[in-house]
Amino acid sequence: MIKAAICEDSRLDCKMLKEIVCFLMTDRGLDFQVDTYENAETLVEGYSNHPYDLIFLDIMMDEIDGIEAGRRIRAVDTKSEIVYCTSSKDFAIAAYEIHAMGYLLKPYESGRIGAMIDYYIQKHPQKNQNFIFFHGLANLKCYHYFHAPSVSPLFQEGPVPVSPSPGRGSGSVAAFKTIGNHFS
Fold it and tell me: Each residue of 158-182: pLDDT tens digit?
């Protein structure tokens, strides 16, 4: 199961981001849980008791901003993936220094959020489902492309095991999925 957190002080942005993330994870057949936080203090407080796999973290918040929250999270958890969400490009270098997995600019675009989720799945295949199903070329929402380094790209029907070994080593299978823009 992927444990995700959204920390966003704008209730409207938080609700929108949660709806998009939940839709995209459901669409990908992922087992997940999404918790929301209205401020970084609540997220950081007791974080070691409830760590997350994937964190969507607003930067410009009162009290503790997202960059400081990221630093505090990194002090107790180096494995979680942080995706910063902001309306400014000004914090990209600070996010990079915290080893953020991504940087999303507002307003939110489902395609970019989907790309972050797909990247997370690629980096952490053990958190992904054990099998990915091909549902047919006619429905692009369920179109999967599989590539094994030892063979040419192929399309498969039915259950296809995803390699449990992370990384780009030989024998690993990367799974990519194309979906339409449902939130335009």
Answer: 343 333 334 433 333 333 333 333 3
Structure tokens at 59: 């930067």
* Token couple for 165: 């070994």
- Count of all residues that appear for the chain in the document: 184
As a whole number of Å, the CA-based R_g of the chain is 17
The answer to whether the beta carbons of residues 73 and 82 sit under 8 Å apart is: yes
Q: How many CB atoms lie within 10 A of CB 77?
A: 15
- Specify the residue for token string 């989720």: 117
Q: How far is it, in rounded angstroms, from Cα 41 to Cα 123?
A: 28
* Residue partners of 65: CB distance under 8 A and separation at least 6: 40, 59
Q: Give the pair of three-digit tokens for residue 16.
A: 């929108």
Report helix angle 110-123 to 11-27, nearest 10. Answer: 60
Full DSSP string of 135-182:
--TT-GGGEEEEE-TTS--B---EEEEPPSS-SS-TT--EEEEE---T
State which residues of the chain have pLDDT below 70: 127-184
